[in-house]
Every structure is written in C-alpha cells, then in structure tokens.
Amino acid sequence: MVVFALLGATFGSIEIAVPVAAEAAGHAGAAGLLLGVWGLGSLLGGLAAARAGAARDPVARLTALLAALAGGHLLLTIPLGPLPLAALLLLAGLALSPAIAAAYSMVDGLAPPGTATEAYTWLSTGIAAGLAAGAALSGALAQAHGAGAAFAAAGAACAAAAAYGALRRRMLLTVSRAR
Would you state the pLDDT for residue 105? Predict the structure, then answer.
C-alpha cells in the first residue's frame, strides 16, 4: 500500500505540474495533450513489459522500475518548452504501467490466504489517498515555486517508493516465496 500511495502522489503531482508548466511556457491549452503524452509513455512501457514476461525477481524489477520512474520524473524539473517537455513526459511515463503491474503481480503472494480481494482494495485506497496528498502538496509547491517544484515532488515520491521497496526487499521475498 505504501508503494501505491507514493505512486498516487506521483499522479497527483504530475496532474498539477503539467498545467502549471504549460501555462508558464505560454501554452496553457497544451496541458491535456502533454498529460496524454505521459499516458502514451505508460502505454508503450506496458506493452514492452508484457512482451518481457514475468520477472525472476519481482521485487528487484519493481524497485528498478520505481527508480527509473524517479529519474524520469526528476528530469521534468528542467524548465522547458512544450515539445521538449512532451519528450520528457513520454520518457517519464515509460516505467509507469510496468511498475504498477509489477506491484499488482506481487499481491497474491503477499496477502494472507483468503484476503487477496481486500489487499487489492487497500491498493486502490492507497493510490487514491496518495493522489489527493500529492495534488495538495504539489499545488502548494507550484504556487510558491513553480512547476519544477511540483515535478520534484513527483520524482521524490517515486524515489521514496523505490527506497521503500529496497528496504523491504528481504521481507517481500521471504513472504512471496513462502506461499
């Protein structure tokens, strides 16, 4: 749930940062298209991940994808015009769907027997809570410091998720292998 809350914070941050960046670049009307490009990156990454198949080490894959998300989203802090921003949003989105899929694929092995449905529900709760918190924090950051600060919040949330996965690696492997 922690990983999903942090991913939700990323979503909330991006949904604030992109319109602020588009407006600052003098292209406020491009915000929806730019968010769509981020989603296209996620779609393309998801298709590539589906072709790659299941991971031998799902915790390592998830952690690596979260670290890639952090790096991609931190690149967005560079103030750019709409076209370069679109390219970076496409790049930043590439690991999004694969990371979500990797996290979801671990749930059955981690949830106690008979609680998988509840576990999936908690993931949805985590992502919704994270989205709300990320949007609120990024709104305040963007108002005070501009889009770069909101993009930094998105990258920081992904970095925190990667760090959490790395710190919990042994427990996650032990629990998922015991089932």
Answer: 83
Confidence grade of residue 175 (pLDDT, cut at 50, 70, 90): low
Q: Over the stretch 44-85, which tens digit does the pLDDT of each residue have?
A: 999 999 998 787 888 888 999 999 999 999 999 998 899 999
Length of the chain: 179
Is residue 12 within 8 Å of residue 150, measured between CB atoms?
Answer: no
Contact predicate 137/9, CB 8 Å: yes
Contact between 14 and 38 under an 8 Å Cβ cutoff? The reply is yes
CA-closest candidate to residue 151, choices 41, 46, 19: 19
Give the 3-state DSSP-derived string for the chain, with helices as H, strands as E and coil as C. CHHHHHHHHHHHHHHHHHHHHHHHCCCHHHHHHHHHHHHHHHHHHHHHHHHHCCCCCHHHHHHHHHHHHHHHHHHCCCCCCHHHHHHHHHHHHCCHHHHHHHHHHCHHHHCCCCCHHHHHHHHHHHHHHHHHHHHHHHHHHHHHHCHHHHHHHHHHHHHHHHHHHHHCHHHHHHHHHHC
Whole-angstrom Cα distance, residue 45 to residue 164?
22
What pTM did the predictor assign? 0.89
Q: How far apart are CA 29 and CA 76, in angstroms?
A: 19
Structure tokens that stand for 2 in this block: 């922690």
Domains of the chain: 2-178 (1.20.1250.20)
